[in-house]
Amino acid sequence: MAPVSTVTSDKSGDWRFAKKLLPYLVERWQRVAIALVLLILARLANVSIPLILKQIVDHLGEIQVTLAIPLVLLLGYGLFQFASTLFTELRNAVFHRIGIDIVCKISSRVFSHLHQLSLKFHLERKMGAMFRDIDRGNQAISRFLNMVVFSIAPVVLEMTLVIGILWNQLGIQYALLIIIVVIIYVIYTLRITSWRRRFQIRMNEQDSSAGTRLLDSLMNFETVKVFGNEGRELDRYDRSMRKWGQASYQNNLSLSLLNVGQGLIIAIGLAVLMVMAATGVRNETLTVGDFVMLHAFLLQLYVPLNVLGTVYRELNHSLIDMGRMFQLLDEEIEIKDKPNADLLRITVGDVEFRNVDFSYSPGQKTLSDICLRIPGGRQLAIVGPSGAGKSTLARLLLRFYEPQRGQILIDGQDIRDVRSGSLREVIGIVPQDTVLFNDTIGYNIGYGDPDAGREAIEEAARIAQIHDFVLQHPERYEALVGERGLKLSGGEKQRVAIARTALKKARILIFDEATSSLDSRAENAIVEAMDRVSQDATTLIIAHRLSTVVEADEILVLDNGQIVERGAHEVLLSQRGLYAQMWELQQKNKSGIDPCDAMGQTK
Asked: What is 16-330's CATH number?
């Protein structure tokens, strides 16, 4: 299994992920335009405050000034303070809605895309790590948009306005010095932040690793308890958390280095500017109002500029977190419908495999030259040793994978030429390991037909012979089944799966080792329920226990990916081949004979 990385790399280039947000912003251009207008108004109001403050100080210094002029200016000062706050909050309200809409839309796209990816993709991924990547990605999109609109854009706009005003009011030397300080500050921030990125990446990787350990351990709670491995699981989780803690500590140390350097650059720049302004006042080339105005402007710039370093770091981290989620959207969909694929048209439900070859990996053929046909409404059983390729046939029929050679036909239609959705609408499956949603029994049965009412759900439960069991529970169909159905026994879960399939009323049914983990009594009940569900349906039974397939219309014996025998039960027994050996071995095991002795006798 390939390792799952949390982020792409520790090099530059992640800004390409920001471009992926542009189409979503363009879709909402009207709200974006309103937010930008409010942003400009807020910044204009903000830079007007030091200008008014200069006028107030200069007028208060005049001996002959009337009280009315400072009073008007003071009222204007308060008005612009309020206007700055008002426009800022209006901008926040407008753009926050945009951010929420974009996060929701991208999340839905990722969710939909994941369901379109192949079974191979999901089998090769660690779900815990992928879940944390998606969760961090969602938060990163919102954080990125907020920082760009609420932090970076206002600072850049305000800095441009301030530099222009100081150039006009005090002279070019003040504007140039601010530009030099900002350039040095930005270069230092970019270089140190690029160096620091490796620590953030390492911290995210360890965070995902710890989350995966936690999720895997809790999902396998019973296995952990049965083998008494709580201490081992705690040790594995603790090691992951310690690695995360070390990475987090290194990340924090590098952050302190960045903050100290940024503070030093800002402090030197402020000190030089204030000395210049004080010298100008002493030489009477500047007024006290100019000195106050410059001080107010520098205070306005200092706080956001100081925060700009933090914003850039968070922006970079957001790009890292967004990257992994957008990479999921870039994963190629291996099983695609053709552009003009038709709906599957079912008549009798005839299923045919023609010369099918398939392998999961190059050089290791799983199925070779498979030819079989299930006439509509009939039963075909597939038996054989473990690893012979039995369940692979079901996966190919459901088009979770596609064969490297050959065709799979339903009523003469190649399943590659029809829409996958219409194919799976007519197929119902009861798997060996039934995994249920952590919801009610009624919900899990009703999953076979989301539009079904309670009466239909109960009727399906009766067919699967689970209705009486449900009625014994105080909450009946509202009883929760637990994570992956752990509150139910194996037989009860299988009955829920059969009821779900019965509710679907599928024309083609697959029973994939549906009784392999059950005792003989439960097996007989499940087989009876399977027979009731599969009446008039084309049925493929994949089984290890031969006792469940003796009534099948035809039985195929699969070994090493090839069909080695075929025929009815009695015919196969008379051939004294692999099927007869398996039957004899299972009958001896059922009679209580030591399996080791039975194996020796079979040989």
From this structure: 1.20.1560.10
